[in-house]
Amino acid sequence: MANKITQVVLLSAGFGTRIRTLFPDIPKVMAPLLGKPLLEWHIEELKKYGVTEFFINLHYKPEVIREYFGDGTKWGVKITYAMEEPEILGTAGGVKNFDGMLSEHFIVLYADTFYRINYGKLIDFYESLKNPIGVATVRKTDHPMDSDLAVVDTNNHIVEFRLKPHKELPKDYWGSSAPYIFRTKILEYIPAKTYYEIDHNLVPDLLAKGYAYYAYPLQEGEFRKDVGTPERYKE
Fold first, then answer.
1. pLDDT value of position 96
2. DSSP state of 24
């Protein structure tokens, strides 16, 4: 069956304050990894799984990204940009930028994170679910006290979402983050031109409204690594 998910939002508006000692003149999503920007890794990898439309939000040094990628023709994809000014709008606010342009289902990535994930399996999992509002990828975390935690039932349904910091830990918990897959229905619950976060605002709201939100456990060999600090970048 042809993949029906062909769009991704690459959240790229962050300042990169902590990594600026290494790269003072570029957005952190343009940090080079083995000779090409992190953002380019995302585009090339997702294209392998049938994703052809990329939506990129901009804030810090937007011209660096625009001049490098243009409209995406060089990579055989289509790129649409949204400029966030005067202030950035948070992760959910960044997705809201593209209201009216997104199809029924789409992927969301934090573009300052390096992912090694089989997107085909993630998409298959999402498409196997009955009427999901969305899916988050989850993994067992070794630093739960400073992580947002998902409580997941035996059907991979996220039944509770606990925001850091924690006074006590649930009996069983998973660290939750991008990649996500969402239905466009979520855009109805994100206020326009307002700072709004996926984990801290949107997800708790969706759960409170009774929507079916699921967890996809990362498989062996799959990982995500934030490159937002010099130490993490070098690692």
1. 98
2. T
